[in-house]
Design goal:
With 447 residues, the protein is an alpha/beta fold. It has 21 helices and eight strands. An eight-stranded mixed beta sheet has the order 3-2-4-1-5-6-7-8, with helices on both faces.
Length: 447
């Protein structure tokens, strides 16, 4: 996940501060030197890192911290507030979506940063909110760009307007007329990119903006590009004028410096972040939530939202009822694993839990989930409903049918039995059940 190394470094700094109890000026200066180095290693802009540490130092050396009973916690609180401010404040920035008429969003950026995919993601995002978006193919140069937009548009359930290799500004004008006639209220222009910034690219984007009234110009940048992403954002902002940024690949193993630098350097906010390859993997950028993740405090609100989006209320009620009636079977167990997959997998959930960054996601062995599904699907309906009837002969058949080993089948059955025991414990003693939640064995070894 983004910021993983930064989170680890900052946790080390704060651990040292907590070990000192009362803090002096020298302690805070030493801590801020380490914080500055951690930020620079995360590819944060030098001036941004320097100004951030100066601001934290000034506040940390105030009476509120020095005379506090928990000075280290006060420093963490200040760092959290300053990180949130640096990335844009408590609440996410909103695009200027009109209630009447057409809203025009123009996507721009370099090649390979995900403009076309994120145009479709944006279309799907607003379609879910009850709007009628339309994608427009203004990239007439890249081979198969129009075909790609057509494919992702179809997957997102969003119509695509295209006119082949006509001039992009003419395509944009015709698209506006089409949108008015067909009731599409959000028009998303997918423009051409280049491997590097050049005058021809900028001139074309300027001509499109002269041809149609663009409400928001969104620059799509790759979080893994680090400081280079910020430099690209600055150039686009100077040349054509951007209104904000969509940060892609924030789920990757990235240092995350772009997220911390882009607003301070360009003055433009991050509106959305791409958190995966699927068309649903787009979410508003919440500075406060991201600051919490960076400091290892988790992001419980995002976790709850993911759970609500993934969970069917009736299904959840039925599963809970069956658990409390001690009727939990292999079908229920399969449903629980599938919920984890819907919510982005175990590693994605860990990043949102307080302290989750300290847990090695590899211990959860997410590769085991498809294997578990294969084993359960290889059982007969009777075996899924009543796993106690699975004898050695049945185990061999299940293993052969799933392409796994008998040992893996046995391991899954042991996990099922432990979960059953915990359901019984929950009925008799809810508090004891919560204490034993940490005793479920991991999925390691089921490769």
């Amino acid at each position: 996940m983004a910021f993983e190394s930064l989170t680890e470094r900052l946790s080390g700094v704060f651990k040292k501060l907590r070990g000192k109890g009362k803090l002096g000026e020298a302690d805070i200066k030493a801590a801020m030197r380490e914080v500055r180095m951690a930020l620079l290693e995360a590819d944060v802009n030098y001036k941004v890192a320097k100004d951030f540490c100066n601001q934290v130092s000034q506040r940390a050396m105030g009476q509120e911290v020095m005379e506090s009973l928990t000075p280290a916690q006060q420093v963490v609180k200040i760092v959290n507030e300053e990180l949130t401010r640096l990335m844009g404040g408590e609440e996410p920035q909103q695009l200027h979506i009109k209630n009447k008429g057409q809203t025009v969003l123009m996507m721009c950026g370099l090649q390979g940063n995900g403009k076309t995919t994120h145009a479709a993601k944006l279309g799907k995002y607003y379609k879910k909110l009850g709007r009628r978006p339309m994608l427009v193919a203004c990239d007439i140069y890249r081979p198969a760009a129009i075909d790609q937009l057509r494919i992702v548009g179809e997957q997102a359930g969003v119509p695509v307007f295209e006119m082949g290799t006509e001039k992009p500004e003419l395509i944009a004008q015709k698209a506006m007329a089409y949108a008015r006639d067909h009731g599409n209220d959000i028009v998303i222009l997918d423009t051409a990119g280049r491997l590097q910034i050049d005058d021809a690219l900028m001139d074309e984007l300027v001509r499109i903006k002269q041809a149609v009234q663009v409400d928001d110009t969104l620059l799509v940048v790759d979080a893994m590009a680090g400081q280079e992403a910020v430099n690209v954002a600055q150039t686009f902002s100077d040349k054509i004028g951007i209104d904000g940024v969509i940060l892609t690949k924030t789920d990757g193993d990235t240092r995350g410096g772009a997220a911390l630098s882009v607003l301070a350097v360009t003055g433009k906010p991050i509106y959305f972040q791409g958190i995966g390859e699927k068309l649903d993997d787009l979410e508003p950028f919440y500075p406060a939530r991201m600051a919490g993740r960076i400091l290892g405090m988790g992001d419980v609100l995002s976790l709850i939202e993911k759970a609500q989006a993934a969970q069917d209320d009736k299904e959840a009620e039925e599963t809970a009822r069956r658990m409390m009636a001690n009727k939990f079977d292999m079908n229920d167990m399969l449903a629980q694993f599938q919920q984890i997959k819907k919510m982005g997998g175990a590693s994605a959930l860990l990043s949102m839990l307080p302290g989750g960054a300290k847990i090695d996601a590899d211990q959860l062995d997410e590769k085991a989930l498809p294997h578990i599904e294969a084993i359960i699907y290889s059982m007969t309906p009777e075996e899924r409903a009543k796993p106690s009837i699975i004898n050695p002969k049945r185990k061999r058949r299940i293993a052969a049918g799933s392409g796994r080993t008998v040992e893996e089948v046995n391991k899954l059955l042991r996990q099922y039995e432990m979960m059953q025991k915990m359901m019984k414990q929950a009925k008799r003693n809810p508090k004891g059940f919560m204490r034993r939640m940490g005793n479920i064995p991991g999925l390691r070894g089921m490769r």
